[in-house]
Amino acid sequence: MPSRPARFSHVIGVDDAPFAREHRGDVPVVGAVFAGLRLEGVLSTRVRRDGRNATAAIAAMISGCRFYAQAQVVLLQGIAVAGFNVVDIAALHDALALPVVVVARRLPDLPAIRDALLSRVRGGRRKWALIERAGPMEPVAGVYVQRAGISLEDAGALISRLSVHGRLPEPLRAAHLIAGGLATGESRGRA
Questions:
Q1: What's the average pLDDT block by block, 10 residues per block, for the chain (191 residues)?
Q2: H/E element, 10
Q3: Torsion of CA 62, 20, 145, 11, to 10 degrees
Q4: pLDDT for 20
């Protein structure tokens, strides 16, 4: 049975950096390590744009860091990073032995994503299968989630507790801002 939400005090939020539409190659991915509402550290790795290495790269980034022993939950801002490099959330959960929660502000347009994957992205069938395997996006705490290793109730309580400046939990908001600043020199957009 999953731990109660109050025990989820050490959270790593993961988001990718913005990149130009014509960019090919690797894209930075940032992890913001939080203890409660305090930023404790920053992690980074790189993944291939529209590639297949997001799950392994994120697992290695987290398992290889000094914060891993205290980590209790991983939050992802979307199930894909660097375009269509889809994270296998069940495999990430298994690799890290930590709950994984995908957070989205809005319900994604899944038919459009499916069409794009199947018609324009190399390995699109496999990537679409990973999205389907993650389960439907579920509304909770003003956002939508997919999850592995945590109940919807606990995910909602965690998101509510960590969402101080809007609907996005602070670990994801910080990862988004840091990734933007890293890639462009200053953070932009809504976080």
A1: 61 95 93 97 97 98 98 97 97 98 96 95 96 97 98 96 95 96 81 63
A2: strand 10-16
A3: 30
A4: 86
CA distance linking residue 18 with residue 94, whole number of Å: 28
Residue 103: strand pairing partners: 77, 145
In one-letter notation, the amino acid at residue 87 is V
Q: What is the DSSP letter of 106?
A: S
Joined together, the tokens standing for residue 106 give 């809005």
**What separation in angstroms does the CA of 17 have from each of 7, 36, 47, 149, 166?**
30, 24, 10, 26, 20
pLDDT at residue 114, rounded to an integer: 96
pTM of the model: 0.94
Locus of tokens 């959330």: 89
- R_g of the chain, CA atoms, integer Å: 15
In sequence order, the 6+-apart residues with CB closer than 8 A to the CB of 33 are: 10, 11, 12, 39, 40, 41, 42, 43, 65, 67, 71, 171
- Beta strand 80-81 pairing with 100-104: unpaired
